[in-house]
Design a protein that fits this description.
single chain, 91 residues, alpha+beta, 2 helices, globular
Length: 91
């Protein structure tokens, strides 16, 4: 699974002892880092966005924010045989 995730510009990392998917969109000129992990109760996904160097943005502090059920439904809608966020997180 790691090789497939790398094809999408991502990798698995541990943050706060929790598996986290980190993606860097190669088409994003700002080279932001998008991090996704399961919520503590395991029923949803939370996300934060970091600057290219891994630091929080000054204005927002890059907090973890839960994705709405509409956001998760949108991820599910584009799911093919592999999804770089949902599959590594076991969803």
């Amino acid at each position: 699974m790691g090789a497939t995730l790398r094809q999408y510009g991502g990798r698995m990392i541990m943050i706060d002892e929790r598996p986290t998917v980190q993606l860097i969109d190669t088409n994003d000129n700002a080279r932001r880092r998008f991090q996704y992990r399961r919520t503590l109760d395991g029923t949803g996904i939370e996300r934060r966005v970091l600057a290219h160097d891994g630091r929080p943005f000054r204005d927002t502090g890059s907090p973890w924010e839960p994705l709405s059920w509409l956001d998760i439904a949108a991820l599910e809608a584009v799911r093919g045989t592999y999804h770089p966020i949902l599959d590594p997180l076991g969803l």
